[in-house]
Amino acid sequence: MTYLRWTLLLTLLGCVLALTGWQSLAPPVRTYDAVPVERGDIESGITAPGILQPRHYRDVVAQTAGQLLRLHVEVGDSVREGQLLAEIDPADQQAAVDASRVQLESLGALREEQLAQRDLARQQYERQRTLARSGATRQEDVQTAHAELRVAEARLKSTDVQLRQAQASLRSEKAALAHTRLHAPLDGTVIAVGQTLDVQKRTPLIRIAQLTSMTVHAQVPEADIHRVKAGMPAWFSTLGGGGRLWPARVRQILPVPPRPLEQMIPAAGDPPGGGQETGQGRGVLYSVLLDVDNEDQALMAEMTAGVFFVDSSVRGVLTAPLAALQGSTDRPGVHRVQVLRQDGEPAPREVRTGIRDQLRVEVLEGLAEGERLLVNGANRQEQ
């Protein structure tokens, strides 16, 4: 029994050693990194960064000087058109209104006095004319009475002018008094609130925006701006959007880069045009505006957006990875690829391609769905 057991053990060991030796002497099995030709969608276009801003907003600016007395809203509050937002101390404006009213009353009394004097002068002039026709007065007295009438009429006209000026001043003072109460110019949400008033600089105190419609301010380099057109479709994503893509459309392309007005005239020695320092020198970025609906208000002001302008797109076409293209030919749009045959070996082939994105290219001719392509010409050998 022991002899039989040792015989079986030695026989099994010999088989294992023989198999191991055969594997060490057998030629290596060659395998390749390959990917299939599949159908898919491809969009070709331009990428650019952008910032989200409300499309419709209004700034509430103090039009009269004074101390801010009360602020009735905070950032994030929803307001209705005409709602009271803030109050400025009206003491100075109320005093000015009262002074204008007193002046107007004084001028009114003066006008009544001058009106009576004019009427009296007219009566005296008519009496002198009547007496002059019968020869009962001197011509000199008639002329004197006529002059006094003209003086009375001139004084009355002057007072009327002063009255109109006083009335205009009163209207202006009343308007200034009304401006001490700031009201909402439209329905919306308060997105910014200041704490100081600067009438000279017209610094906004409150900004109200309608957040149901947003605008993306995309910055497109000058090398790509010629490819962007009004009405062009696009989409964008945000950092906190969780992969959501928002469709949009180009509304406007601003003809000059956004710069302060005082920088529009270049200094001596500076090149013309708006420039911004980039890693490769001076480059110009143009603002492109895209509108997007925001009914669910998932988008907020000042969000960072990654914008993709769709230059061309295809749906449900044969696609191949860009890594499978191994070189171009003399014919435009024709490239060489390596296709794996049924025996597992690669074979060269020429294919005609269409549009491409960052990862895949459209296949127009030369490949069938399901064929496998060698990627980057790489292969590995397994013993």
TrEMBL record:
It is found in: Cell envelope. InterPro entries: MacA_alpha-hairpin_sf (IPR030190), MdtA-like_BSH (IPR058625), MdtA-like_C (IPR058627), RND_pump_MFP (IPR006143). One of its GO terms (biological process) is xenobiotic detoxification by transmembrane export across the plasma membrane. Residues 59-203 form the Multidrug resistance protein MdtA-like barrel-sandwich hybrid domain. Residues 317-380 form the Multidrug resistance protein MdtA-like C-terminal permuted SH3 domain. GO terms for molecular function: efflux transmembrane transporter activity. Pfam families: BSH_RND, RND-MFP_C. SUPFAM superfamilies: HlyD-like secretion proteins. Signal peptide: none annotated. Coiled coil: none annotated. GO terms for cellular component: cell envelope; efflux pump complex; extrinsic component of membrane; macrolide transmembrane transporter complex. Keywords: Coiled coil, Transport. It comes from the Bacteria. Belongs to the membrane fusion protein (MFP) (TC 8.A.1) family. This is RND family efflux transporter, MFP subunit.
